[in-house]
Write the structure tokens for this entry.
Amino acid sequence: MGEIIAVASQKGGVGKTTTVVNLGAALAKLGKRTLIVDVDPQGSVATSFGMGRYDIRAGTLEVFTKDLPIREAIHKTEIENLDVVPSNVWSDDADKRAMMGAAAESKLRDALNEVRNDYDFILIDCPPSLGNLTYNALIAADSLIVPVQCEYYALKALGRFLKVVRSVKATHNPNLRYRGFLLTMVDLRNNLTRRVIEKIRYTLKDLVFDTMIPRNVRLAEVPFYGKPAILFDRSAKGVAAYMRLAKEILYGSHGVGADSDEKTHEEGGKVKVA
Ligand SMILES: Nc1ncnc2c1ncn2[C@@H]1O[C@H](COP(=O)(O)OP(=O)(O)OP(=O)(O)O)[C@@H](O)[C@H]1O
Ligand SMILES: [Mg+2]
């Protein structure tokens, strides 16, 4: 049975989509059958795979609003072992977005149940909000990857999100665990970045992946090329980093410990995990 991992954070632009797309590609290259599911109406996963509006037969919209079996919304990619369910809610479809947002909280979990035996990993790309679509993802998921950009207020910004995760654990999904917090867009030449990393590692301890994702222009070019970076520059630093992350997920020690009742501290308030 495949593991369902939600890649989530209510903060925008922290590298959720970049992680889903390039980690998905890395896992698939390592022979793992991987499905990417985009529940973000921005539809960036489709863009990252070069899919335009008319390339999409059906997507998360029909799964959420028309009870379409998710199998019928699965599209193959150029990479063997890697499939996607794109989001096909376009920015002008306010009504459809509203319908999707009103779907039952367990809609995605029920839909994914039909296909989870076909995959080793299912990665869910979440929108930058704490609305119903993110709830759906947190209820469907076995585990969570939380990308964190190394800024001064990174930990503070996480507070509300971690609270929502605790409440989903308490009410709907007691087995939800952290796969890890992932430091993204890291530039180690920057002094402040190094201090922020130290602080995040001190606060969140072994819940932080050893692997860090560097700031790398090849990763930013994914939407331009319409494919995961591994397909246009295998030697890029960013590609190597997502490959290391995939191996850490497969062979590393993360994913244990999220259920500990660990209390962590941060200036101006507590950050409590799990
Ligand atoms: N490691 C990186 N190096 C350089 N650019 C990056 C990196 N990761 C992400 N980016 C770029 O930063 C921007 C935000 O990344 P991304 O879209 O993955 O974030 P997101 O969390 O999915 O955003 P949103 O919340 O809007 O969905 C994009 O332009 C992306 O190409
Ligand atoms: Mg995104």
Observations:
- The CA atoms of residues 57 and 168 lie 32 Å apart.
- The pocket of adenosine-5'-triphosphate (ligand 1) is lined by residues 12-18, 40, 42, 44, 128, 184-185, 213, 215-216, 219-220, 238 (CB under 6 Å).
- Residues 254-270 have pLDDT under 50 and may be disordered.
